[in-house]
UniProtKB/TrEMBL annotation:
Descriptive protein name: 3-isopropylmalate dehydratase large subunit
Organism per entry: Pseudanabaena galeata UHCC 0370
Keyword Iron-sulfur found: yes
Domain of life: Bacteria
Keyword Acyltransferase in record: no
Pfam families for this protein: Aconitase
NCBIfam families tied to this protein: hacA_fam, IPMI_arch, PRK00402.1
Length: 439
């Protein structure tokens, strides 16, 4: 019997000819990523179980990325980065994207920012490979045709010591997006549509295989937006088959060899769903769950207090480009926070131009708050002094991935998840707004 893309990758990574859903197999990791939130815990378990002097299985396959609680005076958050630094030094870790000068991130050439985007930009996400990460949005890298999933600290410590992990093969759900993408829709609308359709537990421990003409035409950043939120439907991982778009992105960042894998034509799926994207509309996820979907035009009376554009899901270069396209030449009516995912995205804001103006100039002329230092920032609240944290019971339209109570700080705050177009349109009016009103 044929295999899905996820099954093909996991079969290869376990040295098997065939695998099927439900089977438990030992999988070899190509890469393990951890960050400042989970790294210290993972290191603690690793040392306890493998010994104080134990060495990681491969010092070139562990990537350490401080990104979550960086620009804060919180002593425990600062200490977490120190723990990563000490471990990187002791183990001779090749890829440690350190930050020492918190007062000026630009003084830290190694510092990248949000792990999922940094992994892609630094060439660590490659077709056919297996990536484990101590973060639920590790599924982001499935956009590169790899198996990428979030794991807990204990599993990560085991991978750190052995390079392997026992995994149950997930059954695959196929989502096919065909048709011409309307100019007012972005990848975020597509994934919010899916999560609204199947629910936050609609894909629990399943692999989402994303395909179709509309996906084939998408850039890597838009593909990442879709895979990033697979976890919001409970997905174990998501995959998009690699193509020329993937190869161009990866090859411009790494010369490491990789083997692209593809689903067999006769693979079996647990579920198949087709979408005609030309018929979809801009959507939001209302408080307090990513599956609480509504058409933007049905919630236009909701007044908002602020807009947040940032995170692994919605803080990439194209996310800002799309927001800038819509905002250009107009004034925002509510405080609008801009948090580039990485140092590279930050630089893009100051070099990419639309009609002669840099994205940053467009935002500043429109009255947005100056772009912040790259990190996860207010996406998940963080210490009280975190930039963009929602400290009051405000209504926020956000390009991020989660809107659980308290997610961005205050438990009474109401977070509406939206595309960069919808976030930008809403910033211009002060209420939730369909981007078509400005197109
Ligand atoms: C802090 C980390 C464990 C968490 C995750 O795994 O997703 C965070 O990144 C998030 O987005 O909620």
């Amino acid at each position: 019997m044929g295999m899905t893309l996820t099954e093909k990758i996991l079969a290869k990574a376990s040295g098997k000819i065939n695998v099927s859903p439900g089977e438990n197999i030992w999988v070899n990791a190509d890469l393990l990523m951890t960050h400042d939130v989970c790294g210290p815990g993972t290191i603690g378990v690793f040392k306890r179980e493998f010994g104080e002097d134990a060495k990681v299985w491969d010092k070139e396959k562990l990537v350490l990325i401080p990104d979550h609680y960086i620009f804060t005076k919180d002593a425990r958050a600062n200490r977490n980065i120190d723990i990563l630094r000490e471990f990187a030094r002791e183990q001779g870790i090749k890829y440690f994207y350190d930050i020492t000068d918190l007062s000026d991130f630009k003084a830290n050439p190694d510092y990248k920012g949000v792990c999922h985007i940094a992994l892609a930009q630094e060439g660590h996400t490659r077709p056919g490979e297996v990536l484990f990460g101590t973060d639920s949005h590790t599924c982001n890298a499935g956009a590169f045709g790899q198996f990428a999933t979030g794991i807990g600290n204990t599993d990560a410590a085991f991978v750190m010591g052995t390079g392997k992990l026992l995994l149950k093969i997930p059954a695959s759900m196929k989502f096919v997006f065909d048709g011409e993408m309307p100019p007012y829709l972005l990848a975020k609308d597509l994934i919010l549509q899916v999560i609204g359709d199947i629910g936050v537990n609609g894909a629990t421990y399943r692999a989402l295989q994303i395909e179709g003409d509309a996906i084939a035409k998408m850039t890597m950043e838009e593909r990442m937006t879709i895979c990033n939120m697979a976890i919001e439907a409970g997905g174990k991982n998501a995959t998009i088959a690699p193509d020329q778009t993937t190869f161009d992105y990866v090859r411009s960042r790494t010369d490491k060899p990789f083997e692209s894998l593809y689903a067999d034509a006769d693979a079996e799926y647990y579920y198949v769903k087709h979408y005609d994207v030309s018929k979809l509309e801009p959507v939001v996820a209302k408080p307090h769950s990513p599956d609480n979907r509504a058409l933007v035009r049905d919630v236009q009376d909701v007044k908002i207090d602020r807009v947040y554009i940032g995170s692994c899901t919605g803080g990439k270069t194209e996310d800002f480009y799309h927001a800038a396209q819509l905002i250009k030449g107009q004034q925002v009516k509510v405080p609008t926070y801009l948090v580039p995912a990485t140092q590279k995205v930050y630089n893009d804001l100051f070099s990419l131009k639309i009609d002669g103006l840099t994205l940053s100039e467009i935002f500043l002329q429109a009255g947005c708050i100056e772009p912040a230092s790259p990190s996860c920032a207010g996406c998940l609240g963080g210490p009280q002094d975190t930039f963009g944290r929602v400290n009051e019971a405000e209504v926020c339209v956000s390009t991020t991935n989660r809107n659980f109570p308290g997610r961005m700080g205050n438990k009474q705050a109401q977070i509406y998840l939206a595309s960069p177009y919808t976030a930008a349109a809403s910033a211009l009016t002060g209420h939730i707004t369909d981007p078509r009103d400005f197109m």
